[in-house]
Design a protein that fits this description.
The complex is a heterodimer of chains A (about 425) and B (about 160). With about 425 residues, chain A is an all-alpha fold. Chain A contains 20 helices and no strands. Chain A has a single domain, classed as Na+/H+ antiporter like fold, CATH 1.20.1530. Chain B has two domains: about 60 residues; about 80 residues, Alpha-Beta Plaits (2-Layer Sandwich). The longest helix of chain B is centred in the middle third of the chain and has 12 residues. In chain B, the strands form two sheets. Chain B has a five-stranded antiparallel β-sheet. In chain B, strands 6-7-10-8-9 form a five-stranded antiparallel β-sheet, covered by helices on one side. The radius of gyration of chain B is 25 Å and the shape is elongated. In chain B, a hairpin with a 2-residue loop joins β8 and β9. The chains are: A mainly alpha (about 425), B alpha+beta (about 160). At the A-B interface, α9, α10 and α15 of A face β1, β3 and β4 of B.
């Protein structure tokens, strides 16, 4: 494939992504599905197949192939990889072990309920749909992990952030994020380690060793991380942070360990320093730019024709995993002693899936032809993209129309729990 | 006065302040520095956003609330101008003042100073428009109306060395 990207291609990428973002904000939707769709439309599978001269009857524009952006191009692919690194870095940065331990009781219970119900349902679903254990593990991750980015933004936009439902929502997301860091390490080792069990065990060993090394670094290296960013200049701060983060993530990838996991731990190491606030402020736009490239790249790599083949799978997954999140979220709200209405809101909020499901999908593609057969890898990828498109829009809509949904469901829930408590 | 503090992972911090009438004031401090102020009518109600402020503005408002620019003071002498010439003033009656124990008539307030005593605040109660038979007690707060010179004359009467 062409590995060359011209400046005008990068310009087109940003322009199309910007227009997609504008559209999304106009109709109060999450930007993520729009970036993906924009990528799909600009990619080789849609724009690349249009014979524009024939369509327009004039040779003003060349054949679509010449215009289409290419997901294989080095710049876009690396940009997407940086997007993953930044997303996970921020996760680690926000992750505060002491805080988690302080409220471990509630977060632990609500998070475990969420894990057992959704990951369990995902395992069953994946095994039924793909008849392979590794595929089941991937599907379980895809349907389990809610979207921190979309949910947090919606909470702020809707003003729920000041309500009691914010605590179980954000708490459960913290639990999911921690789980997904470990999960990514194991799954990427399994997928990239080839199909051989011995080899997989070996790569899991390397992955666990690398994570242990990072954990030791996090535990004992705080002072060093603190000193590493001691500067009054924003320029130096950003450069040093990127130098440390991207170097460690890249080294991890070179060793065959997930770069996302490495980035998570680097974020965790910085979370214990005084620089958290500066890093968040200075790197947030950087993260958003590269995350947008990541979603765009996901779209570029997606052949919409493949959706036809997996439409049934997506429909089944949506039908199964929407109620599971509603249920686990509701139970999580009850664990936090919220009333029926607010517990239902937790469920509605948790429905949204997004960026992490896509990161798992990109791992599946990386394993194509090795641990996974080509066809299963392609199917899982298309399934994940379609699933995220549906669930991100559905979840955002659920939150926007929560009032109407509550009006229908809350009286029933109250009647039911009233019946339960009176029969006690 | 209870203030609940909770972490909002990925967002910032939330402070919930119980106000006196059961309402709640909620301050969400974002990691970006943005502050959002919400109001809840009661504990279980939905929060309504009242306004949001940038970091700089929030600090400014904070210092105003803290009283850095203007601290309400209950000084011995608060003066309010009714017109350019007439003042309404509050005086604390010093226990050592010659007025303590005298009635308004005996002290010949109007004749000696020119001010009128319009109210006397004694502990929790307020004696509005006290008559000439009203007796001054130590630590009374006297509310008087008069021009600047009259008020100054009166001030020397209520002080410890008043009238000597």
């Amino acid at each position: 494939m062409a590995a060359e990207t011209h400046l005008v291609d990068v310009g087109a990428l940003f322009a199309v992504a910007a227009i997609a973002g504008l559209l999304a904000s106009r109709i109060d939707q999450s930007v993520i599905p729009f970036y993906i769709i924009a990528g799909m439309l600009s990619g080789p599978y849609v724009l690349g197949t249009l014979d524009l001269p024939a369509l327009l009857g004039t040779g003003v524009l060349p054949h679509g192939e010449a215009l289409a952006l290419d997901g294989q191009s080095e710049f876009i692919h690396l940009g997407a990889e940086l997007g993953i690194v930044f997303l996970l870095f921020f996760l680690g940065l926000e992750f505060n072990l002491e805080r988690l331990l302080a409220s471990r009781h509630d977060i632990g219970r609500a998070g475990s309920v969420d894990l057992v119900i959704n990951f369990g349902a995902g395992l069953l679903l994946g095994f039924v749909l793909f008849e392979s254990l590794l595929a089941a593990l991937l599907v379980a991750g895809i349907v389990y992990i809610s979207s921190s980015a979309i949910i947090t933004k919606s909470l702020i936009d809707l003003g729920w952030i000041a309500n009691d439902e914010a605590n179980p929502l954000l708490g459960t997301l913290v639990y999911e994020d921690l789980f997904i860091a470990i999960y990514l390490a194991v799954v990427s080792a399994l997928v990239l380690g080839g199909g051989d069990v011995g080899e997989a065990l070996g790569s899991i060993g390397i992955a666990i060793g690398f994570i242990l090394a990072l954990l030791i670094l996090v535990q004992f290296g705080t002072a060093w991380f603190q000193r590493s960013l001691e500067t009054d200049s924003n320029e130096f701060l950003v450069l040093r942070a990127l130098g440390i983060l991207v170097l460690i993530a890249g080294a991890a990838l070179a060793l065959g360990v997930s770069e996302a996991v490495a980035a998570f731990f680097v974020g965790m190491a910085f979370s214990a320093t005084d620089h958290v606030h500066d890093l968040e402020q200075l790197l947030e736009p950087v993260r958003d730019v590269f995350a947008a490239i990541f979603f765009f790249w996901i779209g570029l790599e997606t052949n919409p024709q493949l959706f036809a083949g997996v439409a049934g799978l997506i429909a089944v997954a949506v039908i199964v995993t929407t109620p599971t999140k509603l249920l686990s979220g509701y139970l999580g709200g009850r664990i936090y002693d919220l009333d029926e209405r607010r517990s239902l809101r937790v469920g509605l909020g948790m429905t949204t899936r997004g960026e992490f499901s896509l990161i798992i999908a990109s791992i599946a593609v990386a394993g194509a032809g090795g641990a996974l057969s080509d066809s299963i890898a392609t199917d899982i990828y298309a399934f994940a993209v379609g699933y995220v498109l549906v669930m991100s829009i559905l979840g955002t809509t659920f939150m926007q129309y929560a009032d109407r949904i509550e009006a229908v469901l809350v009286p029933r829930l109250e009647a039911r729990s009233g019946a339960v408590s009176s029969s006690d | 006065m209870t203030i609940y503090e909770s972490d909002l992972p990925g967002v910032g911090k939330k402070y919930e302040v119980e106000l006196e009438d059961g309402e709640r004031l909620i301050i969400v401090t974002h990691n970006t520095g943005k502050r959002e102020i919400y109001k809840k009518d009661e504990e279980g109600a939905d929060s309504e956003k009242v306004f949001e402020m940038s970091d700089r503005l929030a600090r400014k408002v904070g210092t105003i609330l803290e009283g850095a620019y203007f601290q309400p003071v209950q000084s011995d002498r608060v003066e309010t101008m009714l017109t350019g010439e007439t003042f309404i003033e509050w005086y604390n009656l010093d226990p050592a003042s010659v007025l303590v124990g005298q009635t308004i008539a005996e002290a010949q307030i109007r004749e000696r100073t020119g001010v009128s005593i319009v109210a006397i605040q004694r502990g929790e109660e307020v004696l509005a428009a006290p008559g000439p038979e009203t007796t001054f007690a130590a630590d009374d707060t006297l509310v008087v109306v008069g021009d600047r010179d009259d008020c100054r004359d009166f001030e020397s009467l209520v002080g410890g060395d008043g009238g000597r």
